[in-house]
Specification:
Distance between the termini: 41 Å
Structural class: alpha/beta
CATH topology of the largest domain: TIM Barrel
Function: Specifically methylates position 2 of adenine 2503 in 23S rRNA and position 2 of adenine 37 in tRNAs.
Shape: elongated
GO biological process, one term: tRNA methylation
Largest sheet: 10 strands, mixed
Low-confidence stretches: none
Number of strands: 14
Strand content: 15-25%
Organism: Desulfosporosinus metallidurans
Oligomer: single chain
CATH class of the largest domain: Alpha Beta
Keywords: 4Fe-4S, Cytoplasm, Disulfide bond, Iron, Iron-sulfur, Metal-binding, Methyltransferase, rRNA processing, S-adenosyl-L-methionine, Transferase, tRNA processing
Active site: 92 (proton acceptor), 342 (s-methylcysteine intermediate)
């Protein structure tokens, strides 16, 4: 039997593997709970699995927790992690804590899905380093498990409540691994994170948007829009040359027809594009869409040459959208004092 990645295995897969090894079904359930629910980082922590069975399992299942290279903490509570993978590559992810809701605190993790990114959006630090490879399901899930492990050392009751696939990489270009990771994170014997509390952010991979609506209509969709006209978006989001705005808007309409869920349209605002005419073009583009606009002041990133808009520019831009009857919000700034933009910490560390 070839060596299989433990953190990327579903419960059904573990049951089958255990049966092939001559182990009982309950061993697979115990194993799954230790890994996916309790977020252990070693075989020795699995205390109700005997040493002989652990040796048998470890001979066929490889278990590579992510190595924490660096952790930065913001004054607002945001934590940014740089993790090293088993092959030496590095990825980033971010934990954002929000004030208590009616029932509990909200702990959101922003996950990476690739090492680097091939899309090359103009304002993104990740794209400056190019694309290395896709993450495996275990490496995607591992970000949640390892952050959970570390935070529980300080807060034993810590539980991730929300997931956003908005870190390094384009999630829909690693589609199968991302969807399997979602299933694992949702599992009732794992982290039990609700499907509707997970969101995939994409630059606009049109065929996969439609496929996502059919494969998992519970998961939220966010579109990294950033411009309302093709000539401008071609410069900001190179994927637009392959899937221009007309086809992207059609895909979003089909998504809402299938899922009955609204789409979040993300617009990165700079000192250059936060203008009234840009806002008016956005109103025209999104007319008739079931959606919500999220305005994101760009993080300052060395190498992009882009500057943040002023608070007044953001307010004026939002007002144009609100006057047109659109739902709009401005993303709360978090982690700017620790370089929370995707790819910044990795670039900084690799440059040392």
């Amino acid at each position: 039997m070839e060596s299989i990645e433990l953190r990327g295995c579903s419960l059904d897969e573990l049951i089958e593997i255990c049966q092939e090894m001559g182990l009982k079904r309950f061993r697979a359930i115990q194993l799954f709970q230790w890994v996916q629910q309790k977020a252990v980082r070693s075989w020795d922590e699995m205390r109700n699995i005997g040493e002989v069975d652990r040796q048998t399992l470890s001979s066929h299942l490889h278990f590579h927790p992510l190595e924490r290279v660096r952790e930065q903490r913001s004054k607002d509570g945001t934590r940014k992690y740089l993790f090293r993978l088993h092959d030496g590559e590095t990825i980033e992810c971010v934990l954002m804590d929000y004030a208590r809701t009616m029932t509990r605190d909200r702990h959101t993790i922003c996950l990476s899905t690739q090492v680097g990114c091939a899309v090359g959006c103009a304002f993104c630090a990740t794209g400056l380093e190019g694309f290395r490879r896709n993450l495996s399901t275990g490496e995607i899930v591992g970000q949640v498990l390892d952050i959970t492990h570390y935070v529980r050392q300080e807060d034993p009751d810590f539980q991730v409540t929300n997931i956003v696939f908005m870190g390094m990489g384009e999630p829909l270009l690693n589609y199968e691994q991302v969807l399997k990771a979602i299933q694992l994170l949702n599992h009732e014997q794992g982290q039990t994170i609700g499907m509707r509390r997970m969101t995939i952010s994409t630059c606009g991979v049109v065929p996969k948007i439609i496929q996502l609506a059919k494969d998992n209509p519970q998961v939220g969709l966010a579109i990294s829009l950033h411009a309302a006209q093709d000539n401008a978006r071609n410069q900001l989001v190179p994927m637009n040359r392959r899937y221009p705005l007309a086809s992207l808007m059609e895909a979003c309409e089909e998504y809402t027809q299938i899922t009955h869920r609204r789409v979040t349209f993300e617009v990165a605002l700079t000192s250059e594009n936060a203008r009234q005419e840009e806002a008016e073009a956005l109103v025209r583009l999104l007319k008739g869409q079931l959606g919500h606009v999220n305005l994101i002041p760009v993080n300052p990133v060395v190498g992009t040459g882009m500057e943040r808009p002023t608070s007044e520019q953001i307010k004026r831009f939002a007002q144009v959208l609100e006057d047109a009857g659109m739902a709009v919000s401005s993303r709360e700034e978090r982690g700017t004092d620790i370089d929370a933009a995707c790819g910044q910490l990795r670039r900084q560390w690799e440059g040392e």
